[in-house]
Amino acid sequence: MSSDHTLSSGRATTCKPVICATGVSSTLPMMSLLGGRRAHDDAPVAPPASRGLRFRRSSVFSAGELLLTLTQSDLHFRYGRGPWQVVRWLVDPFALVGVYLILVAVVLDRAGTAPGLSIACAVVPFQLVMLSVGNAMGAVTQRRPIITNMAFRRSLIPLSSVLTEFVAFAASFAVIAVMMAIYTVPPTLAVLWLPIAVLVTCVLAAALAYPASLYGLWWREMRQLGLSFMRILFFIGPGLVPLAATGAAERWLRLNPLTGIFETYRDIFLYGRSPAAWQLLYPLGFAMLLLAVFVPLYRREQREFAKVAA
Asked: What is the pTM of this model?
């Protein structure tokens, strides 16, 4: 009998694996979180009809637990452990873009309405999308130990990349708060739109994470090219100036899914007004299209991850 199973009343029971940044603990059985399958089993286990609802609830909880575990391992790898985690979490956004924005706001005399805050409203959501794509490109390769040794929902890997970057994204709002204080821009009731704006940003980041994960696996040596493409999307959108200041190029810039997101954050924090419907619906529709195309492709290709990631 394999050590992957423990016997109780004649039935094989499942032990949950422990996932860390380097792989799976060698002292625990390497079994799937869902259904108790071995790493080489491909066929799903159909639950009895009378236990269908309970099985679905258990499946959701197990998937959520796995997603949180993958994310936690990423965060420990990035921020380390101990009391300095929170300090680094708060300082990182300022190290990335805060110094430049403060330079724009305090030192440079740029025309326009609160130019530093305007740029921050574009940079902060872009960082979530950009870093999620970058994280997803290397996510499968970095998790090679658990991919080759256990069965689990590999379709959650891109989502864990987005959740990891969302934690850093939450700290980035401190940058916007500092810019609002520098320009003495008070918050308004438009901030009530923020949860919807964040949700749309996360959905777009997740939609881009799936093709990015496959791209980083298939063309590892060209990952920098993929990141360069994401930077181009920032500059061919209203990242540095508001959409209204782009003149004749405005109608073309609207085709960029990031345009609506940038303008939504400006409406919420800079102008204090409700965002236009297209600013939320167009990025959301674009994300739904990407998910419809790449999630099935990702699920089909994940069977070969153990070979390709090696």
From this structure: 0.73
